[in-house]
Amino acid sequence: MSEQAVTDRELWILGVQAESGRGQVLTSYLESGGYKNRLERLENVASGRPLGIILDISPFSDDGWGLLRQIKSDPTTRNIPILPVFLSEKGAIGGVFPVAGFFTLPVDDHYLLERLAVYGLTEDAETWDLQALVVSRSGEENLARAVESVGFEIVKGYTGKEAMALISIRPKYLVFSTLMLPDMSAFELLEKIRLYPYSRNTPLFVLLKEEMKEGEKKAMAREVANLVSKKQLTCEEFLGYLRRRE
């Protein structure tokens, strides 16, 4: 692909209806940082090949959680990076959740290992004694076996609190967590992991159920709303998240 073709690719904003006006702050921040962007719809993602997607997952979004699941379950779109954000009712950016990526359950073993290799996360596993943490009520045996097959020692936690205890004992090289845990969401776990210097840069991958019921979507939206409280990110704070992902 030519340099010009890459330059012309845009960041797309999904989960925000154009007529609502809620995307104005986000688009202005992106433009200030030199990022081409536009509000788009799910049906155009596969053919449009955006550079990445910024997805509103707030209670005010246009089915942000449903969009996330659909994008990540479709082989033609699942490689597109997604940055989940919380936009307030008036469009203020209340929070950003920089997870390393998403995988849908049941996990496709070959795809999982392919993506981990693309991210450069498997190169040192056979040389060094590295641990991967899987946080899930069900243990996710297939995922654990796949990750173990490339040299990682698997450690399992069943709650967010247990995961944090395990990380404090020995930092983990990477973490996989189901979206909803018994005591918190994967996004809250991410926030806690980022609080400590020894785990701040640990990549966390979120595992998505094949289907999300409406009640589960609403519960997750409320959970995210509680995490951001009344925060509002400045332009520089928001752009900092994007620049760290480049």
TrEMBL record:
Signal peptide: none annotated. The keyword Disulfide bond does not apply. Keywords: Phosphoprotein. Coiled coil: none annotated. It comes from the Bacteria. This is Response regulator. The lineage of its organism: Bacteria, Pseudomonadati, Thermodesulfobacteriota, Desulfuromonadia, Geobacterales.
